[in-house]
Amino acid sequence: MTSGSILILGGGCFGLTAALELRVRGWKVTLLDSGVLPHPDAASTDISKVVRMDYAADAQHTAMGVLSIERWKAWNRRWGVDLYHEDGFLVMSRDAMTPGGFEHDSFHYLRGLGHTLHHTDAAMLRDNHPVWNADRYPEGYLNPVGGWVESGRVIAMLAQEAREVGIELVEQIQAPWPVLTDGCCHGVKSADGRVWNADLVLVAAGAWTPEMLPHLQNVMWTTAQTVFHFQPSNPGRYRAPQFPVWGADIARTGWYGFPANADGLVKVANHGVGRRVNASDARVIPAGEEERYRAFLRDTFPSLADAPVFSNRVCLYCDTFDGAFWIDHDREYAGLIVAAGDSGHAFKFTPVMGGIIADVVEQKPNAWTQRYRWREPVAVSSDGARAQR
User: 5-45+168-219+322-372: which CATH topology?
Assistant: First the structure.
């Protein structure tokens, strides 16, 4: 199928980029969301997301990262505002870098591709990035190409573009849900009885996907991660180049964060196993969570450890068993396509996701889509496979 009508359920980075790409290809597109875009509860909605090409020796995600960064820069030019900030990506290890580790493999793989990276040891960390506790991090590197993007503002910009090109955006729908009967998807229905129909339905509902499509709960699930925004008294100490986007032995600890934004806020987060939850559950910061953050800061960034918390939030992932996205025509319901499984690392790829998803919708060949096809759950050991089943 090369054109027709499609309903897209979800206005995050998957849903909006797919909508825009399919509209360019001649589709009649209606996008439905339960909130006002950017939806305040969506993973896409925050002050920042990491943008990087660094993926150990993962050839596909490295290539997707490189292309995405080129397109982030193009979007900055097109929009006339820098929502992507190329402040660099600094990753440090608590031990010397060794083969098989994220820092070692990313460093050598990217250098092998010709990228210029700056090796960093404790002495260089102390001189160039002085808020780090250099005694705890003996080795790592800085990639000057990468940084962060103002994710909530990006979603708002993409929604505006969608309206301008004739995509119908229907917001604040009461509990929209795909209608699945007799092996088919017949459209979308809201809790107050409104119904939408089209040739195809694309569910791009992020963390809500496992609840909407329970037949996928053996391959994907919802996990909760926390995010804290600290407000130091001297935010200038926490801005690039001294304080770029960072990962603190991230493959083993999950800790990462950002330079201070224009409001002086320093975002710190953890990309760890996460707590299994339902997306419809109340979002609650676990007891002791702030102290867990402060213990990490005392060890890694001592000068930030006592900064007041400006805000915090619970961010929901849709994790797949292997950490790879899940983008395919549904095997059980004709007319249904799923684009889900962000697994906590999707937003950086926003500029390339629309083309990937649209090619799946139209069943066109794409070298990157095979990895995200329907697949059986198997035991996986990878950075992405964090959540306990």
Answer: FAD/NAD(P)-binding domain (3.50.50)
For the chain, the structural domain boundaries read: 5-45+168-219+322-372
Q: Identify any residues that bridge with 79 across adjacent strands, giving them in sequence order.
A: none
The H or E element spanning position 338 is strand 336-340
Q: Nearest CA to 223 among 267, 270, 278, 269?
A: 278
How many angstroms separate the CA atoms of 118 and 110, rounded?
Answer: 11
pLDDT of amino acid 379: 65
Helix (H) or strand (E) holding 349: none
Give me the phi and psi of 373, to 5 degrees please. -70, 170
Check if the beta carbon of residue 177 is closer than 8 Å to that of residue 194: no
**Rg of the chain's alpha carbons, rounded to an integer?**
21
Picking from 103, 101, 100, 114, the residue whose alpha carbon sits closest to that of residue 145 is 114
Bridge partners of 200, per DSSP, are 6
Please check whether residue 308 is in contact with residue 231, taking contact to mean a CB–CB distance below 8 angstroms: yes
The 10s digit of each residue's pLDDT in 186-233 is 999 999 999 999 999 999 999 999 999 999 999 999 999 999 999 999
Residues 85-107 pLDDT 10s: 999 999 999 999 999 999 999 99
The model's pLDDT over 317-330, given as tens digits with 9 standing for 90+, comes to 999 999 999 999 99
Average pLDDT over residues 110-129: 98
| Cα distance between residue 12 and residue 9, in whole Å | 10
Q: What is the DSSP string of 50-115?
A: EE---BTB-HHHHHHHHHHHHHHHHHHHHHTS--EE---EEEEESS---TTSHHHHHHHHHHHTT-
Band (383; pLDDT cuts 50, 70, 90): very low
Instruction: Give the whole-angstrom CA distance, residue 204 versus residue 21.
Output: 14
Reading the block at residue 59, the tokens are 């050839």
Residue 357 vs residues 100, 170, 280: alpha-carbon distances, Å: 31, 21, 26
Give the model's pLDDT for residue 189: 98
Paired sense of beta strands 28-32 and 168-170, if any: parallel
pLDDT in the model for residue 389 = 39
Do residues 236 and 371 make contact, with C-beta atoms less than 8 angstroms apart? no
